[in-house]
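Z., the sequence and structure:
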Amino acid sequence: MSSTHDDGTRTSGSTSPTSALVVALAWLLVSVPLAYGLWQTLVKAAQLLG
């Protein structure tokens, strides 16, 4: 059995919850390079403006 959402996408009737550990690792995988890039941008901007 499948259901249709308001946006037209379909999902199967059986869904499994995502583990909190998987979610935490995914956030870590994204946020570490993002934080590094933001830090490097601030350092370069300080050199450029200072």
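Helices lie at 20-49. The chain has a mean pLDDT of 87.

Let me know what you think.
H.
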